[in-house]
Amino acid sequence: MCLKVKEVADLVGVSIRTLHHYDEIGLLVPKEITESGYRLYSEENLETLQQILFFKELGFSLKEIKKIMNSPTFDRQKALILQREMLMEKRARVDQMITTIDKTIKHMEGEIEMTNKEKFEGIDFRHNQYEQEARKRWGDKSVDETNTKIEKMSQNERQDIAHKWDVIFKQLATLRNQSPNSQQVQEAIKEWYNFLNENFGTYSLDAFKGLGQLYIEDERFMKNIDKYGEGLATFMSEAMDFFSGNQKKQR
């Protein structure tokens, strides 16, 4: 059952205007808008909103949140695990700051002495450590470049791309028992190469080869790709390596 915007606002504790703004910038688009103009939010919308608010609590801007959540490599469960780790770190930092405040009060009352270093324990505003960790996990340049194109897409276009992505991976999964160098496999890998270049920016042959290496070096990629078939990530990496080298020879 879908909820109206006021019901969501009351449930979550955010303003209606905030939800309207999230819709306007494409961060949280309601599942449906009725003929009367009412925004209706699904269970999936609420899960997305939860994720957004966790990121906001950790100091991310709406622009940064949108980029991260639109990344092709974004995994909601892994994001929740990371957010928990970040919040635990934040809690430890807040606890340290409270301890520093308590010690400072005692220092002012003459009960204890504090060094200059102790006066600033738990205080560090030089960078957003949570943003750095997220960027490290989901990529920086790749996230930015990909979202330049994704942000311009309609919901239907995004669904179409997701479908094509799924079809290509399923096709490659059926071929993974063949040699990565075989003609049929190489034709399928070429489809993947063309798909990336058509939808996610320009991939040089070296970048395409590097992406294939990432499939086996980063366990997150390997796990997600191998959902289509055991060993698919390694198979694709080898096929992409051969494709890149072979295309260079032909040029």
TrEMBL record:
Xref: InterPro entries: DNA-bd_dom_put_sf (IPR009061), MerR-type_HTH_dom (IPR000551), MerR_fam (IPR047057), TipA-like_antibiotic-bd (IPR036244), TipAS_dom (IPR012925)
Pfam families in the cross-refs: MerR_1 (PF13411), TipAS (PF07739)
Segment forming the signal sequence: none
Gene3D superfamilies hit by this protein: 1.10.1660.10, Antibiotic binding domain of TipA-like multidrug resistance regulators
SMART domains from the UniProt entry: HTH_MERR
Keywords: Activator, DNA-binding, Transcription, Transcription regulation
Top-level taxon in the UniProt lineage: Bacteria
Entry GO MF terms: DNA binding; DNA-binding transcription factor activity
HTH merR-type domain span: 1-71
Protein name from the UniProt record: MerR family transcriptional regulator
Species of the source: Bacillus solimangrovi
